[in-house]
Amino acid sequence: MKKHGKQALLLGTIAAATLLFAGCGNNAQSETLDTESVTVGVTSGPHQEILEEVAKQAEADGLTINIKNFDDYNTPNTALNDGDLDANSYQTIPFLDQQVEDKGYEIEQVFETVAFPLGAYSEQIKDLDELKSGDKVGVPNDPTNEYRALKLLEEAGVITLKDGVAVQATKNDVEDNPKDIEIVELEASQIPSQLGELTAAVINTNFAFSAGLTINDDAIYNEPLVDNPYPNVFVVRSSNKDDEVVKEIEKYYHSDETKKFIEEKYKGSVVPAF
Q1: What's the confidence (pLDDT) of residue 269?
Q2: Mean pLDDT in the chain?
Q3: SS3 sequence, the chain?
Q4: Which of 51, 158, 168, 234 has the fewest CB atoms within 10 Å, measured from its CB?
Q5: Do 231 and 69 form a contact (C-beta atoms < 8 A)?
Q6: What CA–CA distance (Å, rounded) separates 192 from 81?
Q7: What is the pTM of this model?
């Protein structure tokens, strides 16, 4: 009996310690963000460059924005939710909503930043009308971005999607493919390097920029450049959405200086969403 009693006491102590540490973790996630230094995740390219301009303005007022670059669309949300970042700036609202639904993240948007019109590019053809049977067309393989790419191809008259498809749409949701093209699903960041092996590809603007491609000069078809329906957003943990430093960062993102920087550097391929 004494042995059993000691075991029960030990198990109770371990359980109490586990609850204590778990509580500490939750408290850490809910702490108010530092007003002097924050770490923000972005994808390489325009998002990074725009945040560097924002950070320059913030630094003049005593706020340090540490920038952490990522080369994929999934890791920045995981890092933010787990507390390795204070915020991120790289994604559209449908993509964010899908990630929250699929993975249970406690993160949310706080303000809109810019829009990146999606474009189709090719080294072999000048117009999507030139596609023929067996031609390979690359699209991003992540949720919402693949949907956007498929919608772009539909609007160009290349394919028709099934009625009622949502943001999780894949090539399996193509109803009609009159040109008999082969849709190739690829990691978004890898598509520019694969362009030479494809007849055409739909590429996210930030990755297109990194490969020296712009909508104005190189795209053979693209989403609207004005009133684009897919603005990107600045995202924080839900517990930090009302933090003072978040409001300060929004002020720098939406400043006249940032707007001028975007308009002069990207000349319409990336547009302010404010």
Answers
A1: 84
A2: 90
A3: CHHHHHHHHHHHHHHHHHHHHHHHHHHHHCCCCCCCEEEEEEECCHHHHHHHHHHHHHHHCCCEEEEEEECCCCHHHHHHHCCCCCEEEEEEHHHHHHHHHHHCCCEEEEEEEEECCCEEECCCCCCHHHCCCCCEEEEECCCCHHHHHHHHHHHCCCCEECCCCCCCCCHHHEEECCCCCEEEEECHHHHHHHHHHCCEEEECHHHHHHCCCCHHHHCCEECCCCCCCCEEEEEEEHHHCCCHHHHHHHHHHCCHHHHHHHHHHHCCCCEECC
A4: 168
A5: no
A6: 29
A7: 0.72
CB contact set of 164 (below 8 Å; sequence gap of 6+)? none
Burial class (CB in 10 A: 0-12, 13-18, 19+), 185: middle
pLDDT classification of 22: cutoffs 50, 70, 90: very low
Closest-CA residue to 40 (of 52, 23, 28): 52
**Region of 136 on the Ramachandran plot (φ > 0 left; ψ -120 to 50 alpha; else beta):** beta
Please give the backbone phi and psi of residue 103, each rounded to the nearest 5 degrees, phi first: -115, -5
